[in-house]
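User: Hey, quick favor. My workstation is busy. Could you predict this chain's structure for me?
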Amino acid sequence: MTLLIPFAGLEPAPWKNGGGSTTELAIAPPGASLDKFDWRISLATIGADGPFSLFGGVDRSLALVDGPGVFLDIDEEGRFALDYDAPLVEFAGESHVLATLNGGPSTDFNVMTRRERCHHKLGRRVLDGVSQFAPRGDVSILFLAEGDSLSVCSDSERIGLVRYDAVIFDTNTIWTLEAGQATVFVVDIFLNQA
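Assistant: No problem, here it is.
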């Protein structure tokens, strides 16, 4: 079943460590706490320099959505820039991550999967006109990161998105995406086999 998640109906909450705010777009199982989720997708606003919350056993991916970006010092791996030249960063949730603003607050798209239960792939796609989309994961989510609107349709459904809306797809369907100009993030979540 396909599910539209309108951003306008969502409320931000403080980070686990209080260093920013997060708006949860989707979580599984529904209603799970930050210690019990299988996977979670959110928007986070980084408003000040400081450490990220620790999430043991979780793999994380971040993608810049708005603002000048941040520098991330990750354990002993070094410093990584999350900006428009390098818009995606991946790291383990148990890593010690220190964020330093690059000139002002930034908003990022955050994907977290508990590695004993599932794993994910995050991709970025620029749309201009009409294109086809085939969800690949056991669960696939499309997020409109940039652009005023996006039309998503199949033989039986038509869904309209505005910026920051998301769709959880029926993965057995080929979809047509139509936008004047847009950037989307696609998350494919793969459940680990028992």
